[in-house]
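To illustrate the input format used throughout this study, we show a single complete record. The first block contains the structure-token representation of the backbone; no residue identities are included at this stage. The design step must infer an amino acid for every position from geometry alone.
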């Protein structure tokens, strides 16, 4: 596996990429991809960074594990490849966007259209074995993505972080809340959404209001 990360991120993360834990992690991931079916495809492992440069970053959405079903994961949290049925969490995200901002339900579940506008769609763990959720936990990805959040918090200003569910909220301890805005709610998964912890959070309109107040271009959700 070649680590192809967009230049602005490579510069910010160079120290992290040289650490022993990260080298051990990549060795483990390479072996897994050789011997098992893993997702996303190797070329998409760092897609979140490659589609949203450090300079263009305005919003961060945190996920947990990549989808572990065939042809689903594309390297962006909650996102799936074009033409793939929308998983329940993604469907609930789109329903909330519709309730919050109006507009039709999207045909495509590929969220690269958000990435290209400055939304970092970051999973805590960037790889997974097919059909085995959590199979690449505690191998170093969490340390790496904690470092990513810390670097964003330190070197950027006025970023909007959307933390959905308990896991994402725990990752949020790395964020300087004096410099950035953190919006939290329940997770969009059916279990949480159906209990009333997701729908009506209005995170998409709120994010755009915050960006507008900071004279930044809003996101076309």
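Output of the design step:
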């Amino acid at each position: 596996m070649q680590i192809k990360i967009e230049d602005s991120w490579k510069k910010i993360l160079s120290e992290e990429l040289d650490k022993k834990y990260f080298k051990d992690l990549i060795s483990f991931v390479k072996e897994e991809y050789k011997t098992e079916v893993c997702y996303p495809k190797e070329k998409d492992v760092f897609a979140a960074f490659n589609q949203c440069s450090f300079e263009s970053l305005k919003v961060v959405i945190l996920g947990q594990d990549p989808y572990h079903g065939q042809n689903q994961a594309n390297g962006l949290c909650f996102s799936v490849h074009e033409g793939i049925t929308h998983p329940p969490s993604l469907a609930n995200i789109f329903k909330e966007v519709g309730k919050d901002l109006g507009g039709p339900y999207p045909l495509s579940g590929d969220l690269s259209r958000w990435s290209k506008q400055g939304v970092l769609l970051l999973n805590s763990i960037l790889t997974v074995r097919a059909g085995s959720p959590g199979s690449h936990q505690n191998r170093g990805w969490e340390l790496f993505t904690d470092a990513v959040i810390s670097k964003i918090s330190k070197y950027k200003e006025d970023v909007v972080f959307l933390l959905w569910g308990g896991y994402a909220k725990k990752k949020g301890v790395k964020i300087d809340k004096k410099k950035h805005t953190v919006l939290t709610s329940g997770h969009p998964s059916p279990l949480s959404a159906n209990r009333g912890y997701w729908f009506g959070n209005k995170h998409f309109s709120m994010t755009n209001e915050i960006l507008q107040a900071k004279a930044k271009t809003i996101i076309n959700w």
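Structural context for interpreting the output: The two ends are 33 Å apart (CA to CA). The beta strands are 38-39, 59-63, 119-123, 128-129, 160-164, 181-185.
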